[in-house]
Specification:
Number of domains: 1
Oligomer: single chain
CATH superfamily: dinb family like domain
Strand order of the largest sheet: 1-2
CATH topology: Four Helix Bundle (Hemerythrin (Met), subunit A)
Strand content: under 5%
Number of helices: 8
Number of strands: 2
Radius of gyration: 16 Å
Helix content: 55-70%
Shape: elongated
CATH class: Mainly Alpha
């Protein structure tokens, strides 16, 4: 793995591990709680969303795998859901489950981390230097793409940690 690729991988993984740390020990109701109903994302949505975002950016755009992201489904994620749209999102990402749980989304992170490690292990300097077409970001270099993924993950660390603090405060 190129030193720069390892840096990107480690930085992204550290951020996402911090997001998932905010979900630990919570039940479905707590995972789905939002500080301002309809205006903010739940901890569960943040976990699901970062997986979709990284799968698209690292695995699909940088790694060349098919892009099956359903961003709207990410933001409608509900822990404990049996809804077909939610189950379909999970199936698209390699894990067949009948209900979204903290365990199923955590397993998705474990699988994605391995996939990302594989992509970053084989990425070349030419791939980092070249330009890619990102569905939402337009044309970006491999370097920019990796920085965007790392920055985005860390933005959500702040969201997740603040949401967890507010949840803990509300529940005493």
């Amino acid at each position: 793995m190129l030193p720069e690729s390892k840096l990107y991988y480690d930085y992204i993984c550290t951020a996402v591990d911090r997001i998932f740390a905010t979900l630990e020990g919570l039940d479905a109701e707590q995972l789905n709680w939002t500080p301002i109903a309809g205006e903010t994302s739940s901890l569960y949505v943040l976990g699901v969303h970062i997986i979709g975002n990284l799968r698209q950016g690292v695995i699909s755009v940088l790694g060349g795998a098919p892009d099956v992201r359903d961003r709207d489904a990410e933001f409608s994620a509900i822990a404990g859901s049996h809804e077909p749209a939610h189950v379909t999102w999970v199936i698209h990402h390699g894990l067949l489950v009948e209900q979204w749980t903290l365990t199923s989304v955590s397993e998705q992170w474990t699988l994605l981390k391995e996939e990302m490690q594989s992509v970053f292990a084989r990425v070349t300097q030419e791939q980092l230097d070249r330009e890619y077409s990102h569905p939402r970001r337009g044309v970006v270099s491999g370097h920019e793409l990796c920085l965007i993924m790392a920055t985005h993950a860390n933005e959500h660390v702040g969201h997740a940690e603040l949401t967890r603090q507010l949840l803990d405060l509300e529940q005493g």
